[in-house]
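sorry for the late reply, my laptop died twice this morning and i had to redo everyting from scratch. anyway the thing you sent over, i finally got around to it. pasting the sequence first so we're on the same page, its 347 residues, then the predicted structure underneath. double check i copied it right bc i was rushing
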Amino acid sequence: MSGTEVAGAGIDAARLGAWIAATLGGTPGPVQVTRLKGGQSNPTYLITRGSDRYVLRRKPSGALVQSAHAVDREYRVMAALAASDVPVARVHALCEDDSVIGTAFYLMEFVEGRVLWDPALPGIEPRERARMYDELNRVIAALHSVDPDEVGLSDYGRHGQYIVRQVARWSRQYQSSRTETIEAMDRLIEWLPEHVPADDETRIVHGDYRLDNVIFHPSEPRIVAVLDWELSTLGHPLSDFAYHCMVWRVEPGLFRGIAGHDLGALGIPSEVAHIAAYCHRTRRIGIPARDWEYYMAFNMFRLAAIMQGIMARALSGTAASSEALEMGRRARPLAELAWRQVERLQT
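ok and here's the structure:
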């Protein structure tokens, strides 16, 4: 993991060190706490104790939206997937006692590697870019191929009607964090529940699978860990895959995307080719075009709702990052992009 930002951030290092010693063993001693870049929702820290390094994920402080920031769920799914083909960091311990650092948190191993933020992958050779995108494809296909029952996650979420429930959930969360009127969001909240695809499946879904939520090997086009499992649950795999594929539809200035780039020159596959590779890996005959476009619109709506939540936390002073306000301002253009997607579907 990489991307060190600032030290401390209000964690009592002595108290944390005592808890680590009591939980993992060893002699109590000083620990260093350094905030890591990223973690818009759940703040993330590098913890150093002697020669040992860990990563800590915690809930943010302040008033929180109900069911959000579930670090206990992150811990559970990563532990369950440890023996699967999905690369995850080893988790060490979960602490739900707020008296240690003020909120619930968990510790996992520190994984050496590259966290890449720009999906155009600047500075990387075209052939290497192609391999990295193929690896992103392989890992999400591997996740959607895991049987929840076989890894002890049959009760990790509700079975069936995932999209119906997700539209309702993100509509509520948007409305609870609304700071202004966004007409496109109001139209989406009305339209999406009435046009849910009839096809229904249930698999483990990550909920936020994208380039900057994985760690690549330091020198190879191989993913060594998938991060940020906060939004994971049991859900529809095609919705999860469509969220990952939004990168082809979104311009870099709006969110981290590759729309408008010369993909052939970069060595990055087209959206169509990426879908075909996923279908081959998951033994899927194909994806109905109208269903796929709906999942795209839904995920743009969901991302807009997430950005609105970040905006609300930024304005209340509880956001986990200094970049939160800038990210929150993207809620409106993302909602408008989602509504344009719906308008194309309607015509």
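The longest strand covers residues 52-58.
thats about all i looked at so far, will dig more tmrw
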